Amino acid sequence: MSGVPADCLSLRCVLLLMVALCGPEAMPEEESHASEHPRFEPRIEAGACKNLLRNASFECGDDAWSTLGAPTGWGGDLSGLYGRVASGNAWGGTNCLVIELGPGKTPQTCFDVWVPARVTQHAPLAANVGWMAVPRGQPLTLSAYLRSSVPGTKARFLFRFAGDALGRVQETASEVVVTTEWQRYSITQVALDEDVCIAVGPDMTSMPSVDAVFRIDAVQLETGLEATGFETREPLELGFSTSRYGNVYEAGEPSILTVYAHNRGDEEAITSLNLEWEDYFGAPLEPQTLSIRVPAGARVEEAWTLPVPGNGLYRARITWSAGGIEHSRPLKFAVIETYQHDDSPFGLNHPATTTRMSELLSRAGLRWVRNWSVNWQWVEPEPGKVSWDLPDTQLEFAATTGLKTLVVFPNPSTNWASTARDSVSGALWHRMAYAPKEPGLLFEFIGAATKRYSDKCNYWEFLNEPLWVPDFCLPQSAGYTVPDYVSVLEGASKAIRAADPDGRIIAGLSIDPKSPLGDEFIAAGGLQWCDILNLHPYGGLTIPEDFIKDLERIQNLMDANGGPKPIWATETGYYAVDDKPWMPWVVPEGHFSAGLLLQSERVAAEYLVRHAVIHLAHGVEKLFYHEPLDGPVNIGRLDIENPFLSEEGVPKKTFVALSALANRLGPAPRYVCPASFPNAAAQSGASLVGYAFQCEAKAVLVLWSPGREVSLEGIVLEQGVIALDVVGNALSGMLVLTDSPLYLVSNSLTAKELAEGWYAGAE
After folding, report:
1. 106 and 122 Cβ atoms separated by less than 8 Å
2. pLDDT at 685
3. Exposure pattern of 439-459 as b/e (b: 16+ CB <10 Å)?
4. Is 0.85 topped by the overall pTM?
5. Is the pLDDT confidence value at 10 over 60?
6. Which residue has the higher pLDDT, 20 or 367?
């Protein structure tokens, strides 16, 4: 068959020969029944279908498709589908997938460690969403109709196989040469494991400066040695799309779900869709139904307006019957108010890998990024051999997102300048962790970097987690002490001041507030060399209220050692995943956040809000959350560590809760005082918590009752005070204080007046 690589023809010949000589039993075969080990989610239900792929002809829009690109440093991948489903010029039917590449069009991804990388994604492959069970050891054939506007361009066919989700994912890839006419290409591959997903698409790696338009249609994955005639997975297929990256709707606008239906049968098809759904709090909403009528051989699109009651994250399940088969599809979407300010108290540790993921997170009020790319080793890998290309590229990419940048100088040395013993490895940061032989060279680098980037950044953090992390920066395990850090900080501070007199210096041990080692830094006079103290108050499994006593201790210590300084929490986070990336769920060894998962995304969201409010009420100005990753489609390992988004950029409950908090507080909330409570509530025995902030012209009071419900029966709000729930929806009737924070907002009272007189008394 034209377009099939020679090596694949050889494989096919071998397979055919085995079958011809010995029969089908000659094929290598292992048990294909469901195993007990963890298997990747999501899964495509099994069925008596020749074509294993859903929406294989794109007649149901972009449903069930995403993009697989190249990994970027330690960061993620392309997130969501790159390309567009277009009508016309298809191989068959109405639609095909169109991918445009070339200068200014090819997507790029970026991540700031280890080593910083900016990847031009010359091979953005269309990847099916979901894993399919296949008989291990049996041949699979992947075929697709392809067309390019430029003759001689290449396309790639890729299989990914997995068994145990905690093990290795095996990939095999083949290339074909594409013409300017529609042509079918096929690749045959023995199944290397019991689950498979696929990807197919252009590869312009060898022609990066050429503009090209690729079209993909009629993708088929089937068992067997040959590609047979194309069929969709079922005669009647349905698909669903919000037409929004991440499924995020704007508050106040209609939440419209587009339903696609394609009928390749000879008779008209009618089916009824049933949608059952719940809100952020898990409360069921009124079920919705929609009837779809699809003429024979036709496709239809239906706009289904969902009666969304307000802001929040919604989980739905759509069910229908077609051809005597019951179908079920999950849907998760969010409704938020887009954050309107340029600045905010919230940011991210590391940039998101893609621009559109940055834009989505920015909509929720995450307006800062902590960038690690300005590292001496990456600028001067050999003595005197200086290139700023890596950090230049990273900070230019960050500037395109519109987010504000905090630069951290993560390490004190380079491999060649390090005082580490020769036996210390040069891999990763291990040699960079040690003090430099000539500290003056470090300070020269810091001064040069500050001067170079002062037009992009005016906030400079010196070293990440020194002393207390075993091998990262000036580790205690190598004999370094707090005075050692303060001494090096002094030189770095003077270099930054000389290069950017108006810049702000952030320093400290970037440590958990509970650790007394951080107190040593303050007591040793370290604050004189910085403008802002850094902390890393990761929540873990700790309730947010446990941080109060330690933050108060730190404030008292600063008062006794030269006076208070602002605090920035330059890394923090709570983690939860309602939709696990594999089942049965097992925590993978060595995975940071997977071992710290709270029992639900709702708990994580409300812990995050309480944690943020507590810190903002105790001298903290900014909180940077770790970290905005979206890994390869269908894998989900990296996404566990993303506090706000799951796979394909779809939000977690933390996203909508943070959005509501950011919108209430605005760019520069000023803490004023704690809240007063009605006598009946105060005497309830609950640990009531409340903090009042002046947020420009409005006052905001945040209230909650950790671990116990307190009903404010008979209490009415003062005139001009409105109550909102944790996702920003108006409340009416009797207020109940729970673990879930409430917002009281007033445009007429000051924060102090609101804190002391938010209730007017009994009704």
Report:
1. yes
2. 79
3. bebbbebbbbbbebbbeebbb
4. yes
5. no
6. 367
Q: What is the mean pLDDT of residues 168-193?
A: 97
- Please name the helix (run of DSSP H) or strand (run of DSSP E) that holds residue 415, with its range, or none: none
Tokens at 234, concatenated: 């079922």
Residue 113 gets which letter from DSSP? S
pLDDT of 762 > 70? The answer is no
**What mean pLDDT do residues 456-480 have?**
94
Answer whether 217's CB lies under 8 Å from 58's CB: yes
Token duo for residue 316: 């739905």
CB 472 within 8 A of CB 429: yes
pLDDT digits (tens, 9 = 90+) for 655-711: 999 999 999 999 999 999 999 999 888 888 789 999 999 999 999 999 999 999 999
pLDDT grade, residue 15 (50/70/90)?
Answer: very low
Which is more confidently placed, 17 or 402? Answer: 402
Coil, helix or strand at residue 518:
helix
Q: Please name the residues in contact with 61: beta carbons below 8 A apart, sequence gap of 6 or more.
A: 55, 85, 95, 239, 241, 258, 260, 301
Tell me the pLDDT tens digit for each residue of 387-416: 999 999 999 998 888 899 999 999 999 999
Separation of alpha carbons 130 and 242, rounded Å: 18
**CA pseudo-torsion sign 486, 490, 495, 497:** positive
- Residues in a beta bridge with 196: 132, 161
What domains are there in the chain, each with its CATH number? 6-216 (2.60.120.260), 252-336 (2.60.40.10), 373-463+466-535 (3.20.20.80), 670-762 (2.60.40)
Instruction: Quickly count: other Cβ atoms within 10 Å of residue 117's Cβ.
Output: 21
Going by pLDDT thresholds of 50, 70 and 90, the confidence category of residue 4 is: very low
- Check: CB of residue 718 under 8 Å from CB of residue 675: no
Strands 95-101 and 183-190: unpaired
Distance from C-alpha of 543 to C-alpha of 539, rounded to nearest angstrom? 7
Q: How many residues are given for the chain?
A: 763
For residue 326, the tally of other CB atoms under 10 A from its CB is 9
Using alpha carbons only, what angle is made at residue 12 by residues 7 and 15, rounded to the nearest 5 degrees? 130
Residue 11 has pLDDT above 60, yes or no: no
Taking residues 87-99, report their average pLDDT.
Answer: 95
Contacts with 472 (C-beta within 8 Å, 6 or more apart), sequence order: 411, 429, 433, 464, 465, 466
What DSSP state is assigned to residue 637?
T
Tally Cβ neighbours within 10 Å of residue 21: 8
Q: Which H or E run contains 96?
A: strand 95-101
Please name the helix (run of DSSP H) or strand (run of DSSP E) that holds residue 148, with its range, or none.
strand 139-148
b/e per residue 710-744 (b: at least 16 CB within 10 A): bebeebebbeebebbbbbbbeeeeebebbbbbbbb
- In which residue are the tokens 């702000």 written? 504
Three-state DSSP state, 506: strand
Rounded-to-5 percentages of helix, strand, coil across the chain: 20, 35, 45
